[in-house]
Automatic annotation (TrEMBL):
Belongs to the claudin family. The keyword Flavoprotein does not apply. GO terms for cellular component: bicellular tight junction; plasma membrane. Pfam families: PMP22_Claudin. This is Claudin 4. Keywords: Cell junction, Cell membrane, Membrane, Tight junction, Transmembrane, Transmembrane helix. The chain crosses the membrane at residues 79-99, 119-144, 164-185.
Length: 253
C-alpha cells in the first residue's frame, strides 16, 4: 500500500508539472516591462510571450496581438516554441504510460512489463522536464544580458516574466516525478516479488531477478513452514548469486 501511495505521488507531481508547462507555453508573460512614457499620466505594461504580445493600459484595458511572423522573434523564443510543444506532447505520453503501468490499473497484467512501462514513463517525464528547462534558462539569460547591456535602450529592456517562473516549477516537478518513478521502482519490485515468493505463488525452480546484488550477510525474510515460504538466503562466492533459499527455489539478485 505504501509503495502504491509513493507511485501515485510521483505520477501526481508529473501531471502537475505537465499542466504547469501548458500554462507556461500559453501565457504571454515571458518578458515584461513597466515604464512611464513622456506623459506621466499614461502608464503601460508590455508582456511578450511565445505566441503574442500584450499591452496593458493604466485603465486596465489590455490589447493583445499575435505575432505576424515567427522569424521576427528572437532565437530563444523561436526555440522555446518548438521545445515546449515537444515537451508537452512527451508529458502526455508519459502520463498515459504511467497510467498503464500503475499498480492500481490492469492495463498491463505482467509485473515485469509493468515495471518496464513505469521506467519508460519516468524517463519520458525527465526528458520533458529537460526540454522545458533549456528554453527557460536560455530566455532568462538573454533577458538579464540585455538588461545590463548599456548599449540597449531603456525602452527595449525587459524583465523576467511570470511564465519563466512557472516554467522552472514545471521542469522541477517533471524531473522529480520522473526521477521518483525510475529510482523507486526497483525497490518496490523487489518487495512485491518477495511477497509473491512468500505466498508460494511461484513455481518451484523459478528464478527471480529483482535487482542488483546486496552485500554478503543479508538474509531472506524468515518464513513459516516449508517450501517457498521458508526463505533463507546465503550468498555464494563473489556475492553475485544467492544459494537456494528453499528446495527448488533460487533468488538471483
Amino acid at each position: 500500500m505504501a509503495s502504491m501511495g509513493l507511485q501515485v505521488l510521483g505520477i501526481a507531481l508529473s501531471v502537475i508539472g505537465w499542466l504547469a508547462s501548458i500554462l507556461c507555453c500559453a501565457l504571454p508573460m515571458w518578458r515584461e516591462t513597466a515604464f512611464v512614457g513622456n506623459n506621466i499620466v499614461v502608464a503601460q505594461i508590455i508582456w511578450e510571450g511565445l505566441w503574442m504580445n500584450c499591452v496593458v493600459q493604466s485603465t486596465g484595458q489590455m490589447q493583445c496581438k499575435v505575432y505576424d511572423s515567427m522569424l521576427a522573434l528572437p532565437q530563444d523564443l523561436q526555440a522555446a516554441r518548438a521545445l515546449l510543444v515537444v515537451a508537452i506532447v512527451l508529458a502526455v505520453l508519459g502520463t498515459l504510460l504511467a497510467i498503464a503501468g500503475g499498480k492500481c490499473t490492469t492495463c498491463v497484467e505482467d509485473e515485469t512489463a509493468k515495471a518496464k512501462v513505469m521506467i519508460l514513463s519516468g524517463i519520458t517525464f525527465i526528458v520533458s522536464g529537460v526540454l522545458i528547462l533549456i528554453p527557460i534558462c536560455w530566455s532568462a539569460n538573454a533577458i538579464i544580458r540585455d538588461f545590463y547591456d548599456p548599449l540597449v535602450a531603456d525602452s527595449q529592456k525587459r524583465e523576467l516574466g511570470s511564465s519563466l517562473y512557472v516554467g522552472w516549477a514545471a521542469s522541477a516537478l517533471l524531473l522529480l516525478g520522473g526521477g521518483h518513478a525510475v529510482l523507486h521502482l526497483p525497490a518496490a519490485r523487489r518487495e512485491a516479488l518477495l511477497r509473491q515468493v512468500q505466498r508460494g505463488s511461484l513455481a518451484a525452480g523459478q528464478q527471480l531477478r529483482v535487482g542488483p546484488p546486496h552485500p554478503a550477510g543479508w538474509g531472506c525474510p524468515a518464513g513459516s513452514g516449508s517450501g517457498a515460504g521458508a526463505l533463507r538466503r546465503g550468498w555464494s562466492e563473489g556475492g553475485r548469486q544467492s544459494r537456494l533459499c528453499s528446495p527448488g527455489l533460487e533468488l538471483v539478485l
